[in-house]
User: Fold this.
Amino acid sequence: MKHIFLSFLLCILTLSSYAQKVTLSGTVKDGESGEALIGVNIFDKQNQKGAITNNFGFFSYSSFDSKLDLVFSYVGYEPLQLSLDLRRDTLLTVELTPSGLLKEVVVEGERADPIQESTQMGVINVPLRELKNLPALMGEVDIFKVIQLLPGVQSGSEGASGLYVRGGSPDQNLILLDGVPVYNASHLFGFFSVFNDGAINNVELIKGGFPARYGGRLSSVIDISMKEGNMKEFKGEGSLGLIASKITLEGPIQKDKTSFLFSGRRTYIDLIARPLIKNATDGEEVVGYYFYDLNAKLNHIIDSKNRLYLSYYGGNDTGYSNYSSTYEYQEGISESEEKAGLGWGNRIAALRWNHVFNERLFANFTGTFTRYHFDLFTEYQDVLTPSQGDPPIREFYEANYVSQIQDFALKADFEFIPNPEHYLRWGGMWIHHRFTPGVFVSKENDSPEIREGGNPSNSQEVSLYVEDDFSVGSRLKFNLGLHLSGFQAESKTYSALQPRMTMRYLLDPSSSIKASYVEMAQFIHLLTNAGLGLPTDLWVPATDRIGPQESWQVAAGYFKNLGYGLELSVEGYYKAMEGVIEYEDGASFLNTTQDWQDKVTSGEGRSYGVELLLQKKTGKTTGWIGYTLSKTERRFDDINSGEWFPFRYDRRHDISVTAVHQLSDKIDISGTWVFGTGNFISIPTVRYRRENLMNWESDDYYFRGDYIEHYESRNNFQMRSYHRMDVGVNFHKPKKWGRRTWNVSVYNLYNRLNPFYMDIDYNYEQDRNQLRQFSLFPVLPSVSYRITF
Amino acid sequence: MLFLLPILTACDQFLEVPLPGQEPRIVLNGLMEPDKPFKLYVSKSQGILEGNFNVEFEPIRNASATVILEDGTQYALSFREEQQDFYETETYYYLDGLDIAEGQSYELKVESPGFPDVSSSQQIPEHVPITDISYRILGNDGMNSTESVVEFSIKFDDPEAKNFYHLEGDYFGRIGGSGNSYSGQLYMDPLNPAYRFDFWYNSGLIFDDVLFSESGAEIVFRESFPKGYDWEVTIELSHVTEDYFEYNRTASLQSYNRGDALSQPVLVHNNVENGLGIFMALSRSRNTIRFSLEE
Assistant:
């Protein structure tokens, strides 16, 4: 560790020895909307060096030579060539024009950082271009569904939007929306994610080789940036689907100075079903479910060096049931009313200030708020009004279960680009967490209120990081960094110094090999029972008893740019995790009286595998083929007799094929095929008798009918393999006001009944017990209508 | 999940999928303790896919069961079959006359045609006497003025190494001068909630020695008694093997959770090599305390 630190220090000190002549810095934007473009490749043909725009479209490039021959390139945009002769440091704003070929079908661009060039590995820029053209489940395209098609990422159960990255659990994913953590990214019990594609500008998945600027989770970072809002003209986009509709509006408040973005989505199954249910129950019963999302953003350019962003996300799922009835008896009139419901959702806000100190130093200061809240309630009231004129008799019962996690955070990030050989980043963060892990409150008539479950608690988390992306010669490039984080939990304070190292060696101009070693620490846990992304999942902090999660991961890979828009990557990894938690044998989250710490045990995990990704990014046919071969296991002292057992989502083979083909300007077709070996579940294999041995002298035959179900081990049974094909077709038509698109999709084209859950059950037809498989989605056709204006 | 139910029930199917481990295995149920004859139940396990929802287990009548001492001496168990009532027959293997002593190890071997031989072993835990029993009468049991709460403190010396215990008790009450009596097993509500398990529906408390201080082991519990009786309370402290503790803990937990689809599975502790079930051991010590509760 000492050597790493000294080497790192040496690198930083040597920065000053580079004497620069000129620095060109600035922002690269979309020429039509003014939206900052993330990951634009800037290449100086004169000096054979370059730069990349950061998450805010900012870049800085320094050269010893005043003559620059720059090419700005970005997939989906016309490359821009600029020949400059700089006498002094210069600030520049570059606007790229969407390319003619793709203009009709491409809304978003895609970063063009060549795969073999960058130091980072385990990083995939999620192709938003394909997203809107891919087949959709019930007419709803979903970012997480696309991420699940990438190698190294598993989807968990059928339909669920939970992500299992390189053997990690869903809580080990740092899901950031405009830099703010999203604690529960699921709608409709995990079938959809909370991210409305209309409001999203860029999605980056990091599953290994984590740069030091990221921390707080073990397995992945999903960095999602919202659109900034069109600076030049008012634009809109909307869609009508089978279950939901959405609209996105954006435009300038003051041209080239201030812009806004507003996006909303709501499902309407409840609105359609409400009159039908009311009718069927004579108006006595109302049952419904809906979810909604609201995204909003304000973007204000103060001057060429200062910019402000205000982002907001609010979303909620609500399920409700109301039942009322009136009965007349001889004794009087009884009016009863039952209400039950559940709701969960996130509220997120971020205020960000971008400041350019000078041509080489860029800073970003952020204040954030995030809250995930779940509540479940039931109320019952019965009023009996006696016919004799006596006062009414009222009986009632109410119960409420609430869980919540809420963070306030302050963050400062600096980026310093002294010369093309170095890209230095440092910063820090402070988070104030408040955890409310499952409080159950009930009250019945005049009895006192009963409160059970966990007590709310506060925790502080701080982190500091420094990293440098630097070249040694023309072939070798490193990203070295340190991430230091600390967490105050009850009477204990935890800290973790996490070295991060990535190395790239350029074999030739089109291929490279990369290797990485990273250590990660995580101070919060998610108590999840079924792994379905249920809203009942609880976020809890590391405590005196349950420590933090830690991991180390080593990876190596080969990266090749094959030309014609084709990129190939092959990566192998080994990840070891400690402090992962799991419910103990027999624990149930229905038990609200028990402290969560008594229900869990902490242990270790390991995952290793090989991932292959062949991606075609440009041309009329785009898409990718992904394959993952992996093995993931867990071990806990108190589970499975302390032996290793397969992780529930240990998937030996995982294949995905995705393709979008543009037949003409008006029609494009798409298809996906996925295959994954089955998930693991625990199934008893035999039953045997349990005798009452303890009460030798008693005549107690209570035990006579008792038996034991024997499990060979935890997760001893592998369910059937999962495979599915989806197809879709888009019909585009230009209109006077913009463009309309009809999307027709078929989910699960060949109606494969994939396993969602399996159990032992009695088959009456065959008069014997059999394995019973429950599946979710058969073949599901859907249609949606989209407009852009 | 209620919202998913219609979708789930719409797409279910029974599958002919092989489930390994269905073949019947020998199941042993045996408890060994000093000064008691040894009784061993031997039966067959039933594959989970066999039969229907009626769970019936077939006893093995033709087994050869042997207890082997540390010096190699072997004792054969005899088979017995007793009619308990019209419906129930109790079948077991029996060994009387063996001097079962604390600290001694005993190996159990069972052979039956068609099954692999099974074996298990236990060392009889040393006798741990109760050093002190005291009680305090705390007064009315809440709003119930006919009963009093009595707090008991049980002390004993916890031997070296890791130890496990089962504390049980029963009571016998008599109204002075009359023939009326009142008896039953103690429920035992421990003062320290760490000793309270929701799933433990057997009598008494089961615990290990993790929470004991070096100054000695003490368990404090409360019990309610009707007033107006002269009470005789017998406390039985069993020093049990780890197998006893783990088997009873996990078997009770599995039984308690049966039917809760959202609970985690429970792997019941098993110490029978090549088979299933449990062979366990204990040593008991017993003390009695007497007190009266005024009306």
